[in-house]
């Protein structure tokens, strides 16, 4: 259990928070929410020991293990993806290394080392490794990586070759495999796609240890958290339940505070009226003085500011575009000779808000680059309609802001204000009054993202292209973005993993996966939140529309039936082979567990080698059987 008592932290002359008390115990899953700049990351850094509080204390049991995923990852990985993930298994990973080292010594004993000693050590280490479930460790690591969107071929790639988002996934997979007593995650969904977010929800909702996470994703909070802690009013306020319960309880609390403040104000007014009336009457002097002292000692009830960010948008009417704003006609696009998305045929009409979803790497951003002319189609064509003007926001746009400029200077530079007041517009995006004069270097990551979004959306264009705009935003800022997109009079192409935003903004979905792009009118919940996230890739493989020709349909049906029959036979063969392999592993493990065996060194080495080969064979067969069974189940469905 980790306990924080009376924690306080200041930033220059400003108090971020004071008297924060928090308890992280086994089975407790806490979502930490609050506006940008309220100190969420600062509080987490104190909890994990990366920073010291200005006041208060942190209590951590000596044997407690803690895992932490920061927003900005310090890159120290040197091995492959699977090696880095397995290294997070702590004692089990160390035992695995000892086991491999001792196996090598059995084959080639070091000079001066007694062979019987190696045998004894090997038996001890193997017994502990097996009792801890070590032989299933690598299979578990592959399952975690698959859930986070890694292909089997990616697990052997060096981590240093991956992008920042994929490195973050490696770090998250390592933490999940390690299963620490206390797990702290700062915006874990920022670099995930919709499928991986749904998978992660399932894992964390069943997390046995203590969990604290920061997120702006309402659906994610609702699915995972059993408590919400809000950093507001300079302290931490705890609510029991998920996000929906938090909203209701916070509103009830505010209403109680407002009622109590109103009663206090009426009482203060009554006392002040008495003082004013009898201030100069000698017979009432004692009573007047008593009431004056009472007012001086009174603690006024503070009512929180409900406004947070109140956005009223009045976008200028953009120039009118053609009815079809963006059109793909049998377009195939990729990098080099490798196609990413094939045979895309669809059209986006004027005024539509379209969300692109699908696994990372499936081609969502590639499609955006294609329609914007940043990539060329290898086959077919993709083009914008007549009189279409574009403003685009990409994931790292906030990092391109000039840190030495003020908010107002960065926002208004290069824009013709027309009849608009730039400060009024900037206030709509959460930078009112003096906040517009702050230096960008002093803004939090979420505030910089909000400013970059404001700068993009104020352009007088008729097509907005937004790639993951909610990363690093707080909940109020997500509301601002939602309101702005609802009020925006043009057309929107939006890539995001935020399902709440998609539901409230999108008119249609383009699901990009398995080299295909499929159009859905509206927002089908079964596409947005699949019942089984681990099977979503295979389940959607056949969702593209078939040709209308009857002959083609008959040929396709016959092919499907033949494929299904072949798959069923393959599954049955693999199942039998797997049973034989597992029986062989069990038999070899039983022989290795026999103490009498270690009196025969030559047999130990032979059986250990055979056991390793049998285990590898069983793991390979299990993976092939699972893939074939999953494909068969999809075909039957």
What is the multimeric organization of the chains shown? single chain
Q: Helical region count?
A: 20
Overall pLDDT confidence: 80
Side-by-side strand order of the widest sheet: 5-6-7-3-8-9
- Give a quick account of the main beta sheet: strands, pairing sense, barrel closure: 6 strands, mixed
Helix-strand makeup class? alpha/beta
Gap from first CA to last CA: 45 Å
Globally, the shape reads flat
What fraction of the residues are assigned to beta strands by DSSP?
A: 15-25%
- Percent helix among the residues? 40-55%
How much is the radius of gyration in Å?
31 Å
DSSP strand tally? 18
Itemize the secondary structure elements and their pairings.
Blueprint (H helix, E strand, L loop, with lengths): L1 E10 L2 E11 L4 E5 L6 H9 L6 E5 L6 E4 L11 H7 L3 H17 L7 H17 L5 H11 L16 H15 L3 E5 L7 H12 L4 E5 L3 H7 L2 E6 L2 E6 L2 H36 L6 H13 L26 E12 L2 E12 L3 E5 L6 H8 L7 E6 L5 E4 L13 H6 L9 H7 L16 H13 L5 E5 L7 H13 L3 E5 L3 H7 L2 E6 L2 E6 L3 H4 L7 H4 L10 H43 L8 H36 L1
Helix pairs in contact: 2-6, 3-4, 5-6, 9-10, 19-20
Structural notes for this entry:
The protein has 637 residues and is of the alpha/beta class. Helix content is 45%, strand content 19%. The strands form four sheets. The chain has a six-stranded mixed β-sheet with strand order 5-6-7-3-8-9, sandwiched between helices. The longest helix has 43 residues, at 550-592. It is flat and about 110 Å long. The two termini are 45 Å apart.
Task: Kindly summarize this structure in a few lines.
With about 625 residues, this protein is of the alpha/beta class. The chain has helices at about 40-50, 80-85, 90-105, 115-130, 135-145, 165-180, 195-205, 220-225, 245-280, 285-295, 365-370, 405-410, 420-430, 445-455, 475-485, 500-505, 525-530, 535-540, 550-590, 600-635; strands at about 1-10, 15-25, 30-35, 55-60, 65-70, 180-185, 210-215, 225-230, 235-240, 325-335, 340-350, 355, 380-385, 390-395, 465, 490-495, 510-515, 515-520.
């Amino acid at each position: 259990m980790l306990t924080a008592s009376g924690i306080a932290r200041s930033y220059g002359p400003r108090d971020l928070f004071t008297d924060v008390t928090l308890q992280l115990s086994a089975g407790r899953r806490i979502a930490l929410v609050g506006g940008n700049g309220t100190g969420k990351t600062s509080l987490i850094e104190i909890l994990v020991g990366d920073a010291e509080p200005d006041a208060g204390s942190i209590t951590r049991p000596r044997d407690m293990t803690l895992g932490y995923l920061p927003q900005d990852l310090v890159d120290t990985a040197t091995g492959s993806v699977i090696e880095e993930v397995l290294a997070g298994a702590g004692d089990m990973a160390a035992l695995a290394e000892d086991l491999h080292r001792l196996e090598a010594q059995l084959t080639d004993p070091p000079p001066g080392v007694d062979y019987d000693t190696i045998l004894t050590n090997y038996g001890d280490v193997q017994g502990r490794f097996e009792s801890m479930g070590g032989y299933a460790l690598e299979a578990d690591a592959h399952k975690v990586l698959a859930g986070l969107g890694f292909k089997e071929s990616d697990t052997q790639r060096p981590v240093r070759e991956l992008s920042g988002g994929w490195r973050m996934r490696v770090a998250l997979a390592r933490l999940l495999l390690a299963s620490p007593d206390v797990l702290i995650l700062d915006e874990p969904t920022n670099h995930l796609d919709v499928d991986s977010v749904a998978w992660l929800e399932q894992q964390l909702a069943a997390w046995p240890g203590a969990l604290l996470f920061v997120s702006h994703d309402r659906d994610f909070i609702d699915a995972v958290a059993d408590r919400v802690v809000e950093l507001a009013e300079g302290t931490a306020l705890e609510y029991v339940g998920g996000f929906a319960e938090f909203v209701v309880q916070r509103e009830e609390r505010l209403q109680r505070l407002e009622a109590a403040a109103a009663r206090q104000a009426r009482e203060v007014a009554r006392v002040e009226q008495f003082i004013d009336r009898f201030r100069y009457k000698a017979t009432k002097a004692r009573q007047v003085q008593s009431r004056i002292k009472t007012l001086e000692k009174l603690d006024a009830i503070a009512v929180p500011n409900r406004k947070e960010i109140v956005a009223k948008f009045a976008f200028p009417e953009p120039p009118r575009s053609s009815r079809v704003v963006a059109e793909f006609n049998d377009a195939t696009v990729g990098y080099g000779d490798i196609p990413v998305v094939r045979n895309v045929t669809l059209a986006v009409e004027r005024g539509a808000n379209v969300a692109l979803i699908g696994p990372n790497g499936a081609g969502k951003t590639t499609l955006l680059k294609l329609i914007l002319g940043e990539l060329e189609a290898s086959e077919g064509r993709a083009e914008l309609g007549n009189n279409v003007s574009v403003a685009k926001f990409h994931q790292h746009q906030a990092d391109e802001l000039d840190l030495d400029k003020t908010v107002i200077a960065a926002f208004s530079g290069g824009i013709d204000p027309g009849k608009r007041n730039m400060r009024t517009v900037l206030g709509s995006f959460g930078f009112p009054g003096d906040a517009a004069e702050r230096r960008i270097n002093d803004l939090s990551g979420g505030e910089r993202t909000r400013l970059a979004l404001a700068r993009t959306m104020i352009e007088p264009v008729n097509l907005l292209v937004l790639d993951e705009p909610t990363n690093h935003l707080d909940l109020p800022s997500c509301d601002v973005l939602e309101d702005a997109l609802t009020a925006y009079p043009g057309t929107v192409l939006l890539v995001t993993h935020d399902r709440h935003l998609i539901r409230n903004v999108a008119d249609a979905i383009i699901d990009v996966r398995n080299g295909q792009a499929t159009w859905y009118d509206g927002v089908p919940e079964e596409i947005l939140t699949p019942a089984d996230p681990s099977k979503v890739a295979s389940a959607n493989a056949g969702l593209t529309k078939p040709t209308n020709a009857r002959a083609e349909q008959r040929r396709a049906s016959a092919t499907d039936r033949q494929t299904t029959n072949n798959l069923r036979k393959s599954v049955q063969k693999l199942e039998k082979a797997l049973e034989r392999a597992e029986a062989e592993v069990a038999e070899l493990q039983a022989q290795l567990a026999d103490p009498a065996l270690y009196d025969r060194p030559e047999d130990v080495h032979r059986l250990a080698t055979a056991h390793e080969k049998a285990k590898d064979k069983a793991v390979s067969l299990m993976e092939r059987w699972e893939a074939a069974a999953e494909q068969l189940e999809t075909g039957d469905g």
